[in-house]
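go over both lines:
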Amino acid sequence: MSTPLGQELRRLRMERDLTLEDVAKGTGITLQYLSMLEKGVRKSVSFEIMADISRFYGVPLDYFAAFIKEEESRQLSEMEIMLWKAINDKVRDEIYFKKGNSIKNMFSKLFR
């Protein structure tokens, strides 16, 4: 049984008349992983993967947050919320304002 996020990913793909292979090539995410996301087999998704998917479909990362929140049964910690917001802001800047490698730079600073 698919998850709300999986259903939305499939809807976006079908709406654009794309195959999973097209999305895999466009995002750099494996076909198998994308299939597992759509089917709801893979429920945990990293920010990096969601950023790649967001960029590929041209929709804000915030858009997918609503579908992910539907799936989560636990509350996010304040740190997770802060990180989610920071990453969303950076992805929005990269997608809409073409500011470059801000996410890559942010992660390199966080994980030194």
